[in-house]
Amino acid sequence: MKSSMKPQYEARAKIIKAMAHPSRLFIIEELNKNERCVGELTEMVGADTSTVSKHLSVLKNAGLVTDEKRANSIYYALRCPCIMNFIGCVEDVLTAKAEDHKKIMKSCRK
Amino acid sequence: MKSSMKPQYEARAKIIKAMAHPSRLFIIEELNKNERCVGELTEMVGADTSTVSKHLSVLKNAGLVTDEKRANSIYYALRCPCIMNFIGCVEDVLTAKAEDHKKIMKSCRK
DNA sequence: GTCATATTTGGCCATATAGCCAAATTGCCA
DNA sequence: TGGCAATTTGGCTATATGGCCAAATATGAC
């Protein structure tokens, strides 16, 4: 690929990589419904606070979420809800994969 | 998160993870324009054939691409072009991030 | 100031990934 | 059948990641 394009692909990959973790996907979905503070998310995810904090820092670093200090907590919010549209497509891929699998199974029984 | 949901998040994360690499993003874009064989992609990406082959196997494993043997080459194609819509959103995130950065810079100069 | 609560950071280990080279495999065609 | 071309696989190293625990760092209340 053109070397001038490389930084752009790297920037995109960094953002996508930030989404590429089960707990972080869960967090993204929750934040799409409601802003949340670290404590709430920690309880919902069911992992160590430090682990969740690090996940949030990954998301923030990628620019996917924003954080705001309020009262004695830090509230995180999803920055670009369009991210959620993508999940639908991911589900499509999963469905397509499942269909293929079914086809293969069927041809094996012949 | 509900433990019953965990496999679903893991499945989604696996697909997103497969996209989370600069070369693979490049390959996805190319395959969106045209199906391509390994040799062509190798030249376009500019890496070792074995490296590109492994990238393709990651994409295939995730269900993002299909492969078809033809003549003496294997042609890969993008399975769900909707994936491409997502890139637009990723760009939005990058823009939002850049805007923030500008704001911060501005407030520093005050 | 001191305490308690909320969050982040550092340290550590186990695991996964990307990349190259070399070797194995697969399929076409003379 | 033998060889060539395309692709995949194995082996290796360096690097990054996720997770927990423990420690550090805010921030608000008294």
What does this structure look like?
The structure is a homodimer of 110-residue chains. Chain A is α+β, with helices and mostly antiparallel strands. Chain A folds into two domains: 6-79, Winged helix-like DNA-binding domain superfamily/Winged helix DNA-binding domain (Arc Repressor Mutant, subunit A, Orthogonal Bundle), CATH 1.10.10.10; 84-110. Helices cover 67% and strands 13% of the residues of chain A. Chain A is built from five helices and three strands; from the N terminus they run ααβααββα. Chain A has helices at residues 6-19, 22-33, 38-45, 49-61, 83-109; strands at 36-37, 65-70, 73-78. The longest helix of chain A is centred in the C-terminal third of the chain and has 27 residues, at 83-109. In chain A, 31% of the residues are buried. Chain A binds a DNA duplex (30 and 30 nucleotides) through residues 21, 23, 37-39, 47-51, 53-57, 69, 71-74.
Q: Main attributes?
A:
three-stranded antiparallel β-sheet, 13% strand, 5 helices, 110 residues, DNA-binding, homodimer, alpha+beta, Arc Repressor Mutant, subunit A, globular
CATH superfamily of the largest domain in chain A: Winged helix-like DNA-binding domain superfamily/Winged helix DNA-binding domain
CATH class of the largest domain in chain A: Mainly Alpha
Classify the fold: give the CATH topology of the largest domain in chain A. Arc Repressor Mutant, subunit A
H/E element order of chain A: HHEHHEEH
Distance between the termini of chain A: 44 Å
Largest sheet of chain A: 3 strands, antiparallel
Uncertain stretches of chain A: none
Task: Give me the count of strands of chain A.
Answer: 3
In percent terms, what proportion of residues of chain A is strand? 5-15%
Physical arrangement of strands within the biggest beta sheet of chain A? 1-3-2
Average of per-residue pLDDT values of chain A: 91
Count of DSSP H/I helices of chain A: 5
Considering DSSP H and I runs of 4 or more, what fraction of the residues of chain A is helical? 55-70%
Briefly note the structural class of the backbone of chain A: alpha+beta
Domain count of chain A: the total is 2
- Radius of gyration based on Cα positions of chain A: 18 Å
Largest interface: A-B, 42 and 42 residues
Described by its quaternary structure, the protein is: homodimer
